[in-house]
Structure of Hemoglobin subunit delta:
Amino acid sequence: HWTAEEKAAITSVWQKVNLEQDGHEALTRLLVVYPWTQRYFSSFGNLTNVTAVAGNAKVRAHGKKVLSAVGDAITHLDNVKGTLHDLSEIHAFKLHVDPENFKRLGEVLVIVLASKLGSAFTPQIQGAWEKFVAVLVDALSQGYN
Ligand code: HEM
């Protein structure tokens, strides 16, 4: 259900992503913009302000893990659901993450990509990414059904 243009838009942007740096920024934005998400990461230490989150090595390491899983989905665009099946179950049954938060992470990820690419993040590229984020959120939410 992807056009060749959509696939190219998603993979070409992903080639420019730095998993650790951009993952850290996305997770930082999640924790600061939507502070209720901090409750899931109580083992990560102090996350109460932007300076603490930005300097937190656990947030950095975890941001890289999250974006690696996104990259895994991107290399399997025709089977995102199957690729993220186990990860979805972990978030549902073990971590008890409210699936609404997957949308929030998708939103901050698009903002990180847009600020990184500037005018190269064209409306057409944004359109493909919004569609990918919807597929990503749907795949991560499957374990809740
Ligand atoms: C763990 C990916 C969204 C909370 C993980 C792990 C991955 C991952 C790969 C490691 C799983 C393992 O250890 O086997 C993702 C992806 C997301 C996403 C791809 C969305 C695009 C979220 C959101 C939250 C969340 C929105 C909460 C607001 C957690 C927590 C852990 C975890 C608490 C365990 C952290 C730890 O103690 O090490 N996630 N995640 N995740 N995720 Fe997510």
